[in-house]
Amino acid sequence: MTSRKTWVAWGAVATAIALAAGVFVGWVLLERPPSQEVTAQQTYPLTAADLALNAVRGPGEVQVFAGRPGEVRVERKVRWDRAEPRVVQTYEGGELRLELECPRSTHLTGSLCEADYRVWVPPKTRLRADVGDGLLAVTGIHGALQLTAADGTVMVSDASGALTLRTRSGSVVAAGLRSPEVDVQSLVGDVTLDFAGVPEKVSAILTEGTIALDVPDEGRYRVVSDVTRGGETVDVATSEAATSVITARVTEGSLRIR
After folding, report:
1. What is the CATH code of the structural domain delimited by 38-257?
2. CA distance 172 to 157
3. Which of 5, 9, 72, 182 is the most buried (most CB within 10 A)?
4. Which residues span the membrane (predicted)?
């Protein structure tokens, strides 16, 4: 009898919890307003070969593509569900500045506030780009690239200029590279580099995570590698006399070169 009463009591507790959870979910859905979205486009003249892109303030993603000569084109999409954020977009002295200021949310469920940018620049532009949180992706740009993401992901594809890539916490992914020199540094995350052409000099330094380098089989490489704590695999043709040099260091994690 006691056992039956115990099960009945536990059943009542479980029912109460389920009802409370249902009420909370319903309250969240009703309390949160529908999202809003605004898009905008702007084109700026670009007379120099260099462009600085500053997007360190504001969450979201920035994608850069090869566009028309002599111009920078920006498409912006801003989304929010409570107070409309403040958007700043300026172009002056060869610097494109993209900022998003989100109002402070006091709601238990938080709020939606983000902006995504698609930017087109001439294919041979020398680009320096800095973002804060989010994604920085660059495709088809063949000038030198200096890309930095504080807490986010850096992605590069179809590049042939010198690359300098930096992250504090996030991943670095680069594919289809024909860049002669690549320099990557990251604190926490994974670094993945895939080369379509034999590089002259590669440096990849990572504190915690995995470095994976894929290089063409026809090359011979001088490899300088070190993994303090973790595993290491080097499966490429090596030679101390090789002119293609790969330097890779991982403090804690793994390294694979093939």
Report:
1. 2.160.20
2. 11
3. 182
4. 7-30
